């Protein structure tokens, strides 16, 4: 048996969340006294896949079928299930991404496996019990879950574990074919449309996030948020009221009914800190709040705060970052 | 077209989450329960598509005990035609998916919709499990859903963009914004909901595959360090030298 890790690639590169998943998988394999094999999906290059050795992966399986470049739920499910059977994998680990959750849920039925998504820590082995800690109540709490049965699938929350890098170690890249046919691609997308990301940084994977609320007064002032984000190499985000009135797109909405993020640094500008918003950000390592209202509830959840006008403070911060170089 | 909309009963988004003293169970005392916000997109969009087609039915399905009925009635008041409640506590995603799959198969539903995930369990699992159990496609998470005859065109959110996916019925989709503007019940809806059929059925299938043993709350923050607005730039030095995050 081995641990099978699903590695998502785009534009030839392994996604950051998948580097985290690869490290996580290698650590789980070490706990169980076995090795970690990866199955790569998306557009990858052999050279980049070999570097997964740095995360502790021994072998990488890659099916060069060109139609696997874009996400196709049925085809990806069959691909990973076939790899799991070949490797006799008892544990399958994916990123808790839109791909990972879509495939993981189908796989759990097909492979008769127990499934935990949104997992934030390495599993604990208590005798026969296999326990994972996962995020619940939309960031407001955690739950410890026992996974029963012979096979288990774990989807790991982004930014909740760190990707290790052991320079120089390489993984063996093995070609692999799941013998996919046309019917496996029946639900293939007819079109894929990518957004323009600020500085190319995806919000769910970002290490740093600069976020704006109604205190920004209007979409025309977002250049202040974008300037600081650009200087910091951060992604931009917003609160629910801001996306509800279409100042910003919905995919930037952070909170209980948007996305939950856990960057190293979250800077909230002109956001009061409603409980639904805090739920989406409270697993951030460091939270900075800028608000002119000293009574804003967000200050209670912050590590650093500035009581002041965002229109005055933000340019000062951007200038200070640029000075650091 | 027969729509099956699956709703879950969750704590209101403003709820401060607490647990029983042994941390084994969610403390329901004083908590108001609502239709899961993501499920509201599924419900409203099903009603809109039925109205646009001029025919069809919308059945709402909940796996829960009798205390979920007020929210099932609310879904009927918003515009669903009838409801089914599987009389069981929702033990885990697999257990819930088994119930949905059994009812979807028995009732030969064409379109099975639900929210992206529940805001209490945050599983984001049920859609795929149901699709796999029934051997039909799943589109998750869907931001847009249009129907033309038996063909649906959906926009599926991917990290950093979207995919346009076309599938034929039957299929499963998990829904999220900006699919539609969720409706709220009007007085006429509330009156008619009282007499709409609500069938209660027993649970079927195998037991749950996962079990929650304990809950925990996130660690509390140490307290905020305030920096004067006049010297705001000092924050950046603290972030580099003290917090070490930039």
Automatic annotation (TrEMBL), chain A:
What Pfam families does this protein's entry cite? ETF, ETF_alpha
SUPFAM superfamilies in alphabetical order: Adenine nucleotide alpha hydrolases-like, DHS-like NAD/FAD-binding domain
The record, for InterPro entries, names: DHS-like_NAD/FAD-binding_dom (IPR029035), ETF_a/b_N (IPR014730), ETF_a/FixB (IPR001308), ETF_asu_C (IPR014731), Rossmann-like_a/b/a_fold (IPR014729)
Q: Where is the Electron transfer flavoprotein alpha/beta-subunit N-terminal domain?
A: 3-192
| UniProt entry tagged with the keyword ATP-binding | no
Keywords for this protein:
Electron transport, Transport
The entry sums up its family as follows: Belongs to the ETF alpha-subunit/FixB family.
Which protein, by its recorded name, is this?
Electron transfer flavoprotein subunit alpha/FixB family protein
Q: What is the lineage of its organism?
A: Bacteria, Pseudomonadati, Bacteroidota, Cytophagia, Cytophagales
Automatic annotation (TrEMBL), chain B:
Please tell me whether the keyword Electron transport is annotated for this protein: yes
| CDD domains tied to this protein | ETF_beta
- Looking at the record, the residues that make up the Electron transfer flavoprotein alpha/beta-subunit N-terminal domain are 23-210
Matching SMART domains, A to Z?
ETF
Q: Does the keyword Metal-binding apply?
A: no
The record, for InterPro entries, names: ETF_a/b_N (IPR014730), ETF_b (IPR012255), ETF_beta_N (IPR033948), Rossmann-like_a/b/a_fold (IPR014729)
Q: Which domain of life is it from?
A: Bacteria
Keywords, in A-Z order:
Electron transport, Transport
This one is known as Electron transfer flavoprotein subunit beta/FixA family protein
